[in-house]
Amino acid sequence: MSTTENKASARVLIVDDEDDQRNGLASLVSSWGHEVRTARDGQDALEKLDEFAAHVMLTDLTMPRMDGFELLRRLALEGGGPVSIVLTAFGSIENAIKTVHDLGAFWFIEKPVQGAALKTLLARAVSQGKLREERESLARELSYKGRLDDLVGRSKAMREIFSLIRQVAPSSAAVLVTGESGVGKELVARAIHNLSPRRESGRFIAINCAALPESLIESELFGHEKGAFTGALQRRQGCFELADGGTLLLDEIGDMPIGTQAKLLRVLEDNRVRRLGGDREVQVDVRVVAATNKKIEEAVGEGELREDLFYRLNVFHIHLPPLRARKEDILPIAEALIASHNKKHGCKVLDIHPDALQKLELHPWPGNVRELRNVLERAVILAGEGTILPAHLIGLDAEDARPASASDPDAIALRVGTTVRDGEKALILKTLEHTGNNKTRAAKILEVSLKTLHNKLKEYGS
Fold this sequence. Notes:
Layout: H1 3-8, E1 11-15, H2 19-31, E2 35-39, H3 42-49, E3 56-60, H4 68-78, E4 83-88, H5 93-103, E5 107-110, H6 115-144, E6 147-148, E7 151-152, H7 156-168, E8 175-178, H8 185-194, H9 198-201, E9 204-208, H10 214-222, H11 239-242, E10 247-251, H12 258-270, E11 272-273, E12 282-283, E13 287-292, H13 296-301, H14 307-313, E14 316-319, H15 330-345, E15 348-352, H16 354-362, H17 368-383, E16 385-388, H18 397-400, H19 420-434, H20 439-446, H21 450-460
Parallel strand pairs: 1-2, 1-3, 3-4, 4-5, 8-13, 8-14, 9-10, 10-13, 15-16
Antiparallel strand pairs: 6-7, 11-12
């Protein structure tokens, strides 16, 4: 076999209940240099895929036990399945096209299969399958280094979020992202889209449900026909149609009017949308990611979010903790932001002075990553080049002087009656925890010498 054929070879699973058809296709595909496995039906295919990571799957639709429709539905729900080509009998083209559209198959080919047509189609599917595998591998490698798409973080919490994103991205499941304002919920939604097959098939569209008046939000979501209302001078597609084949982010879903929520639920259940003033429905294939900064259970309990819509959106839940709860992410996020602001403003800032970093880590960040981005943008402009100094971090001092709240992870609660010695010990140990056991930085924060800190730790037996 030539070097070229080796490079082009792929793993292919063939699923068909007819022995002659299955074995004939396996022989043909093997002759093109591909590694082939076969399965008798959908159930058998799922078991084979557990041990055989196929790039491409050729599957019949009509089979016993589990048919091709159910097989594709299962793979779409679980995510991470191979690129799929549907084998269809003569006269079933409409069924095949519906399967491609609704269940995300790559394309279809009619029986009896023509070798030349299959070889061309298979080559295209293999190319897409290998690109998907490479993208997932790269995303996994980068996430281990503290980066996933535009998300940055090395904390345990962010590593867990990266893992959740990698798991859910290949599927079509609805995702609910929660967290305070400014934590990066839209970046999570974009990462889900960019790591999914929908990156090739459709766009990422975002709409802020809190930013639009009630009179306009339905037009933005569903579109409108000419003359549907005053000012509707021409037909306009809504976000669902614009995101067809891709991903739609419904940001601040808890602020969507209740009447609109009912119409949204129907679209999510039927995958059909009717423009305002229209008399026909349009089929859409959209993956929905919803986001909110509200406590979701309270929003449902207070009637701000329909319970049935909540269950429809909350198939997969990702919660982003606030920046103050993951201080170890501040440095890697800051480094990424500085690089971005350098490019944007033509600056040449190289690093952050340790005292400036300490100031960033002590700040409570009520505005989360969004606030950090703004602070660092000012700092990069002020510094221009070289090192960001504490003097470049405008506007943090007043916030730093505020007393810590009970919910602050860096706060220390001491009962009345605690001795000075025990209070001092608690403060030192909490500061060491905050600095990741960096005694030099802890001594600076406590304003004692490193020798004094070591003596205190020895005294406490720590």
